[in-house]
Specification:
- By secondary structure, the protein is an alpha/beta fold.
- Helix content is about 25%, strand content about 30%.
- α2 links the parallel β1 and β2.
- It is globular and about 40 Å long.
- It starts with 9 loop residues before the first helix and ends with a strand.
- The N terminus is likely disordered.
Length: about 170
């Protein structure tokens, strides 16, 4: 089965690649797709452990069912700076199609690193040019410059990127 992003079995891969467990605390940025978030919610099994951040004036319609089940849906004025979230408070972070919309891409990766617990992982799922303004070469440079992270997985299709980054245990 193909996900909305056009990658086979993406929800299952994300759960495995992020090492999600029933007691994982998960942060979701952007629009990864309702099916992906649904699979994460099933893996975590405790909705209050999931936080979805959005940037608009009101929550995206797809977040409503999650909010009704106890998932925290919060507004973030800047994805690059979320001082209302504690440092090292998440086991896993999922960012879906956010980088092409941000001015501070490096700052965003630094923020995800700050929010992750040591040993935690971040999944980046991005549309690439021409489907978005983000070019593969720019994304590769961005990830290369994020030296705090280790790259666990880096996959590209015609217009999609799937990258797993890991914060070291001593970080």
């Amino acid at each position: 089965m193909k996900s909305r992003l056009g990658m086979p079995d993406l929800p299952e891969r994300i759960v495995a690649d992020l090492n999600l467990r029933r007691d994982s605390d998960v942060l979701v940025f952007g629009e990864p797709g309702e099916g992906v978030v649904e699979r994460i919610a099933a893996a975590v099994d405790e909705p209050h452990r999931i936080v979805i951040l959005y940037r608009g004036l009101s929550p995206p319609p797809w977040t409503r069912t999650f909010s009704e089940r106890g998932v925290r849906v919060l507004r973030s004025h800047l994805y690059e700076h979320n001082d209302f979230l504690a440092t090292s408070s998440f086991d896993s972070i999922l960012a879906g199609n956010v980088l092409d919309k941000l001015m501070g891409k490096s700052e965003f990766l630094a923020e995800t690193y700050r929010l992750l617990k040591p040993g935690g992982r971040t999944a980046l799922i991005e549309k690439l040019w021409p489907a978005s303004r983000l070019k593969k070469s720019d994304l590769l440079r961005l990830v290369e410059r994020a030296r705090s992270y280790s790259v666990v997985r880096r996959e590209f299709s015609l217009m999609r990127a799937y990258i797993i980054l890991e914060r070291g245990l001593n970080g």
